[in-house]
Amino acid sequence: MRVLAADIGGTKTLFQIIEWAEKREDRHVLVEHRYHSNDYLSFDTLLQEFLSEVDNKITKDLVSACFAVAGPVVNGVAKATNLPWQLDPEALKVKFKIPQVILINDFQAQGYGIECLCPDDFAVLQQGDPELKAPQTLIGAGTGLGQALLVWHEQLGHYQVLATEGGHVDFAPSGPFQIKLLEYLSQSLARVSYERLLSGSGLVNIYRFLKEQSPAAENPALKDAMREGDPAAAISRFAMEYEDSLANKSLELFAQIYGAQAGNLALTCISQGGVFIGGGIAPKILKYLQAGGFMKAFLNKGRLSVLLEHIPVKVILEPKVGLWGASLVAARYKDRKM
């Protein structure tokens, strides 16, 4: 079964054509291309270019396509959050003569992609004692904070991924210092959600708060790097490469808040099948997630800490998990086994 998949982000778009065999592990990638999203006025234009670059012998046998979009999908139609793109599956199906087209949220695609991964694609923070077919959860900080539920569907024989907007719930500080953080952010924000802390811009918010606590601690070189480029990337780089004190403290606090919200999500869903940490930030700051602060905050749930001790917690290391998820959805959609 030959399908087309795309993972559409504000910065880049990945395309993949894959041949799925009866056994999922026997899949074979035929074509994979990467494009800069901002170079194209519409997704149609980009898709047309991709298809024109691929041998017709490969594209003529496509049975379905799934496009994962960084943006909301409402009534089947998707609007990219950071691009002037709107995708209509029916219009795409007719224009490009693809039998079936489905659109899903990009974070939802990550959830489906978990099934395609192997043990080496994860970093284990807590081994736990997973319960077969029990609920699983996915949380991932990147441009924003994504959260999703994975619920076993007995008739279909696999997990279904339910997108949420849980990243926008109110930030609940843990201890006096985080209360100060909340008070600091409340000076400029009408409402402080977890996404205001657990995202690229959230890391910058944490850094600025810590800088205000100790103004003399700021590294002039880091200050310049933040002004000239991506400030969150600069903070991470100075922490990882130069062991900058303020950048280090920022990532340590980021990891603690990340662990607390992952634990909140695990409690909300009783995720005895596992908690997965996705998104683009986690693999880049893995040593901070492994240092202990993340899991300490994850487990700090009072009387229910014992419950969380049995839940597996894993960081997803595979950067193309969303692309794999979209491809798997395309293969299942052909047979209506979503």
From TrEMBL:
Cellular localisation: Cytoplasm
Broad class of where this protein is predominantly found: cytoplasm
State the family named in the UniProt similarity comment for this chain. Answer: Belongs to the bacterial glucokinase family.
Query: Taxonomically, which superkingdom?
Result: Bacteria
Assigned EC number: 2.7.1.2
Supply the source organism's classification.
Answer: Bacteria, Pseudomonadati, Pseudomonadota, Gammaproteobacteria, Chromatiales
Kindly report, in one word, the top-level EC class recorded for this enzyme: transferase
Per its UniProt record, what HAMAP family does this chain match?
Glucokinase (MF_00524)
Coiled-coil residue windows = none
As one GO molecular function, the record gives:
ATP binding
Question: Can you cite an annotated GO cellular component?
Answer: cytoplasm
Keywords from the UniProt entry:
ATP-binding, Cytoplasm, Glycolysis, Kinase, Nucleotide-binding, Transferase
* Binding-site residues, ATP: A6, D7, I8, G9, G10, T11
Which processes are annotated in GO (biological process)? glycolytic process
Task: Kindly indicate where the leader peptide sits in this chain.
Answer: none
| Pfam entry (one) | Glucokinase
Query: What InterPro entries has UniProt attached to this entry?
Result: ATPase_NBD, Glucokinase
Protein's recorded name: Glucokinase
Please write the reaction equations for the catalytic activity of this protein.
Answer: D-glucose + ATP = D-glucose 6-phosphate + ADP + H(+)
